[in-house]
Amino acid sequence: MKLYNTLTRKKQVFKPIKKGHAKIYTCGPTVYDYAHIGNLRSYIFADILHRALEYDGYKVKHVINITDVGHLVSDSDEGEDKIERAAKRQKKSAWDIAHFFEAQFKKDIKELNIIFPDKFVRATDHIKEQIALIKKLEEKGYTYKTSDGIYFDTSRLKDYGKLSGQKAEEKLAGARVKMGEKKHITDFALWKFSPPFPPSCNQGGGEEGDFFLNKTPHLTSPRVQGEEYQRRQMEWSSPWGKGFPGWHIECSAMSKKYLGQPFDIHTGGIDHISVHHTNEIAQSEAAYNKPLANFWLHNEFVVFGKEKLSKSKGNSITLNELQESGYHPLAYRYLCLQTHYKKQLNFSEEALGAAQIALNKLYGEARVLSAPKGECAKLEKEFKAAIEDDLNTPKALGIVWDMLKSNCAPGAKLATLLKFDKVLGLGVDKNLGKKVVIPEKIKKLNQERQEARKKKDWKIADKLRGEIEKMGYEIEDTSTGAKLLKK
Ligand code: AMP
Ligand code: ZN
Predict the structure, then answer these.
(1) Half-sphere exposure of residue 347, counting CA atoms within 13 Å on the CB side?
(2) Where are the chain's structural domains?
(3) pLDDT band at residue 479, thresholds of 50, 70 and 90?
(4) CA of 390 to the centre of ligand 2 (A)
(5) pLDDT tens, position by position, 25-63
(6) What's domain 15-203+211-299's superfamily in CATH?
(7) How far is the CA of 441 from the centre of ligand 2 (A)?
(8) Is 316 in the pocket of ligand 1 (CB under 6 A)?
(9) Could you tell me if the CB of 27 is within 6 A of ligand 1?
């Protein structure tokens, strides 16, 4: 299998560290809000990688982390923690926010037929490991202290920034990065001190080994410049004082614990290349003098119009919203597979509707095939070659349709389709014996259309028919009323 490695900027043949085994670490969600469909593309892509490696006979060990502390609103180690901010705004505890959105995330990836990783690992469950790693870096002279935390000194590394290939000045040109007391613009926080509470007090240090968890939100809070001031909820004692880990250290500590160092493949969205993954590499390699991971794979963004989908820009769309509009989660998965993971995906409802029609058609074709038997060897070879060419899913989907149109025997077609779907994960197997289920939203649109017809409001009726068809359903007007069918 060939994979494009961001680190070497080349498509390379995948060679595992241990024969027949592949270890993958995927940077997971920051659980302060619902994942948007851009985020979810990252996990669909990692899932295709996982499935493709299994298809090729590897035993896969996959770890996804849950960032439930330490991800600040700005990449330059300042501003509020995203989870603490959400808690404050929603008047909930930070722990409740994190648990709620973690559960929502798991629900989303289940609906997208993403294979659950062998392990989900939470940052807050690994504070000890993160502190130990920071201590190791401190002992080796890679850290320094400022008034707000312990920082990593990036000037100590000759090859800092090798993942993005950018120089510090280039990377930060135009970026709003505050130096604060940092010695170099690329230095980053390993441990942040909790803001003093009450605000006028001095920072108090914690006892070493005392992993004090503040799980009680302080509801009676002093006011600072007219605003209610709340004490940080997630904080722990450390050798440097009470506080919380920086965002990047969790991935270094947890990947080492569960996959070892180096491990095979690290994945994430392209926005992680220049800061988060660059800093993971810096920490892990400084601590252990060996690579963190051999392959670095990054998916491109989902964009809407010209803008990147983003939670903070407020233009995010969630899977739940798509479902409420009558789309099947797997229609979104199909849409993602139609674009190579290294290309931007321009999201539109029209494209999603077309993907839903194609998916319904695929299920329909599968339903009329006879029991799986035999194979379509030539097309299977082509499919394998497409997947092994840096996960070329658009080409692989084309081969699926070629195979269904081919003159292979019906039983061989179904056997081959089911094999292909082990990689694509479009849920063909689960839909085989099933009756077509018409979503409630479509039924409602159809009812409205019937009412419009009764009132002889043909314009509205036609508009509603158009909406129904756009989502992959057809209306057959019969003498006994309108019948809904899948296209
Ligand atoms: P976050 O929850 O913000 O930590 O992001 C989770 C994952 O989604 C990361 O791998 C990001 O790189 C990725 N990501 C963020 N925005 C987008 C987007 N618009 N399209 C695709 N992936 C994204
Ligand atoms: Zn990470």
Answers:
(1) 26
(2) 15-203+211-299, 303-431, 440-486
(3) low
(4) 22
(5) 999 999 988 999 999 999 999 999 999 999 999 999 999
(6) HUPs (3.40.50.620)
(7) 38
(8) no
(9) yes
pLDDT in tens, 237-263: 999 999 999 989 999 999 999 999 999
Q: Enumerate the H helices of 234-315 as residue ranges.
A: 249-259, 278-288
Q: Is the peptide bond before 410 cis (omega within 30 degrees of 0)?
A: no
273 secondary structure, DSSP code? I
Mutation to probe ligand 1, out of 26, 31, 39, 101 (largest number of atoms < 8 A from CB): 39
- 67 CA distance to ligand 2 centroid (A)? 8
18-52 burial: b if 16+ Cβ within 10 Å, else e: eeeebbbbbbbbbbbbbbbbbbbbbbbbbbbbbbb
The CA 268 to ligand 1 mean position distance, Å, reads 7
Q: How many angstroms from the chain centroid is the CA of residue 110?
A: 13
CATH code reported for the domain at 303-431: 1.20.120.640
pLDDT for 207 equals 36
Asked whether 29 lines ligand 1 (CB < 6 A), one says: yes
Angstrom distance (rounded) from CA 317 to CA 37: 6
Residues found in the chain: 487
**Token reading at 323:** 């479902």
User: Is residue 283 within 8 Å of residue 133, measured between CB atoms?
Assistant: yes
Minimum-distance ligand 1 atom for the alpha carbon of 308: 19
Q: Is 266 left (phi over 0), alpha (psi -120 to 50) or beta?
A: beta
In ligand 1, which atom is closest to the CA atom of 71?
A: 4
Closest ligand by atom to 123 CA: 2
